[in-house]
Design a protein that fits this description.
Elements: E1 3-6, H1 23-35, E2 43-44, H2 51-54, H3 60-67, H4 73-79, H5 85-108, E3 110-114, H6 134-144, E4 151-155, H7 162-167, E5 174-181, E6 194-198, H8 204-221, E7 226-230, H9 248-265, E8 269-272, H10 281-299
Parallel strand pairs: 1-2, 1-3, 3-8, 4-5, 4-7, 5-6, 7-8
Domain Histone deacetylase: 18-290
Pfam families: Hist_deacetyl
Keywords: Hydrolase
Length: 300
């Protein structure tokens, strides 16, 4: 059964002109149910994660400042969100959504989180709409509980997973792969185990050719027994922040490539949603919906 984490919707007022489309988190479950891709029993509502798992990835000083709402103005500004208890509560629920989805993936082969992919969060700070790094927490949870030995992070959001790269720079058990826009945010990139920076305007065929090659390179050097997939859809040509030129079909083929790889390796895979900033929310929802359809088709 495909299990999907659905966290509470963040309702706190956002600054005027804020470009982060929170609506997609509410619309996507409805679309999946409407199409019959899943049923109500496929969804689970995670509870907030225990502090000890956050502290396994993030510094105690940062976590205390975050949960006590004592970040400085510059630290809050870097996250892109107005800081509130509601936001922090949602963030720690999202974290456990990814962790629990990973546990379901071990049982069923694949599981999803409608949210997550917060790859810009460092051990000691948040950035770019990311307060805590669910990818990092999940990878550490799997390894520390001896549920996995070698975790591969496939991050295909258009923005480099700088926080994730930093977290695992010295950890041979987690291989971080980020394929991202060469000239896009963040301007100062970190060093992943494998980075692939692609130029503005890259279209479907070139993108998919590069991705296929890079995945082959990874498997020559690393054998994963678990995959975390950050499936951001801000690679679309219509995305306001993406600067690439991919179509919905190209994104679908990209997702199929990653999911089929996991299936062929018999490696459980947890998919978290990542970015998507198209001016048409319906296109964002459709782009995200595709990976859930593929999950059902490939694994069940």
């Amino acid at each position: 059964m495909l299990k999907i984490a659905f966290s509470p919707i963040y309702k706190h007022p956002l600054p005027e002109g804020h470009r982060f489309p929170m609506e997609k988190y509410e619309l996507l479950p409805g679309q999946l149910l409407h199409e019959g891709v899943v049923k109500e029993e496929n969804f689970f509502k995670p509870k907030p994660i225990e502090d000890k798992w956050i502290l396994n990835t993030h510094t105690e000083e940062y976590w205390n400042k975050l949960k006590n709402l004592t970040l400085t103005k510059s630290e809050v500004r870097a996250t892109g969100f107005p800081l509130s208890k509601e936001l922090v509560d949602r963030e720690i629920t999202i974290l456990n959504g990814s962790v629990q989805a990973a546990e379901f993936a071990l049982k069923y082969g694949i599981a999803m989180n409608i949210a997550g992919g917060t790859h810009h969060a460092y051990a000691n700070r948040g950035e770019g709409f990311c307060l805590l790094n669910d990818i990092g927490v999940t990878a550490n949870y799997l390894i520390d509980n001896q549920l996995s030995k070698n975790v591969l992070v496939v991050d295909l959001d258009v923005h480099q997973g700088n926080g994730t790269a930093s977290l695992f720079a010295e950890n041979p058990n987690v291989f971080t792969f980020s394929m991202h826009g060469e000239k896009n945010y963040p301007m100062r990139k970190e060093v992943s185990d494998l980075d692939c920076a692609i130029p503005d305007g890259t279209k479907d065929e070139e993108y998919l050719k590069i991705l296929e090659f890079q995945l082959e390179v990874i498997l020559k050097n690393f054998t994963p027994d678990f995959i975390i997939y950050q499936s951001g859809v801000d690679v679309l040509a219509t995305d306001k922040l993406g600067r690439l030129s991919m179509t919905l079909d190209g994104v679908k083929r990209r997702d199929a490539m990653v999911l089929n790889l996991a299936k062929s390796l018999d490696s459980p895979i947890m998919c978290c949603m990542g970015g998507g900033y198209s001016s048409k929310v319906s296109q964002i929802v459709e782009a995200h919906t595709q990976v859930y359809r593929l999950a059902q088709d490939i694994f069940f």
